[in-house]
């Protein structure tokens, strides 16, 4: 355990106003390097805002109330809870449950997100195909770049999962694998080079899971 984290744990353990402590980031996922910051959430039991007694440039700390921890509307933040470690939970497991909820999608959320992300991916791939066909290679490349985020969002939502941050994409696929062929090497090599290469495999799995109408609305195939 890093000295920074040990000091933070000692401080929150002695403060009854703190309901929980959650370690996230590279230290929680076991991929920290010598230069990695300690990323953590301090969860307060009331409206009062908590502050550490001392600061450190190696500590990236966010303070949330229990109500804020329960709010799942911030899509971007949700992956930070995937693989997070609850180091203190004074609410008899509620902190751990809220962390689990943040890092996963309900069936309803997955349905909405999959359709949204698939729709965006399909449109950007079709634009790339049309631009390439028209001899506008630089425009096609830009459309492919836009398609990458939609592709990853769609892939994980189709499988009911929160999309990982880029830096943890390989970690996610290595530690929590998707079914074949969606290995880390398969996904990363294609989405980083030309996301449209994943159109066929993604369409197949999306149709198998009930999202074929997203593709049907735009016609069959990439062009």
TrEMBL record:
Source domain of life: Bacteria
Name of the protein in question: Nucleotidyltransferase domain-containing protein
Residues annotated as transmembrane: none
Species of origin: Paractinoplanes atraurantiacus
Polymerase nucleotidyl transferase domain span: 9-47
Keywords tagged on the record: Transferase
Molecular-function GO terms, alphabetical: nucleotidyltransferase activity
């Amino acid at each position: 355990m890093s000295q920074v984290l040990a000091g933070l744990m000692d401080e929150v353990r002695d403060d009854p106003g703190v309901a929980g402590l959650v370690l996230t980031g590279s230290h929680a996922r076991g991929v920290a390097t010598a230069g990695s910051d300690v990323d953590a959430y301090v969860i307060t039991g009331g409206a009062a805002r908590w502050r550490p007694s001392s600061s450190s440039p190696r500590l990236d700390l966010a303070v949330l109330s229990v109500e804020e921890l329960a709010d799942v509307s911030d899509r971007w933040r949700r992956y930070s809870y995937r693989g997070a470690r609850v180091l203190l939970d004074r609410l008899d497991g509620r902190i751990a449950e809220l962390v689990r909820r943040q890092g996963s999608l309900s069936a309803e959320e997955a349905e909405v997100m999959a359709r949204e992300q698939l729709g965006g991916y399909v449109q950007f791939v079709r634009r790339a195909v049309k631009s390439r066909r028209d001899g506008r290679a630089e425009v096609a490349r830009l459309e492919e770049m836009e398609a990458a985020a939609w592709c990853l969002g769609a892939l994980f939502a189709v499988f009911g999962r929160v999309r990982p941050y880029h830096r943890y994409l390989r970690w996610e696929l290595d530690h929590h694998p998707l079914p074949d062929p969606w290995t880390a090497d398969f996904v990363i090599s294609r989405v980083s080079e030309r996301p449209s290469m994943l159109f066929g495999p993604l369409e197949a799995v999306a149709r198998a899971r009930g999202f074929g109408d997203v593709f049907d609305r735009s016609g069959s195939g990439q062009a």
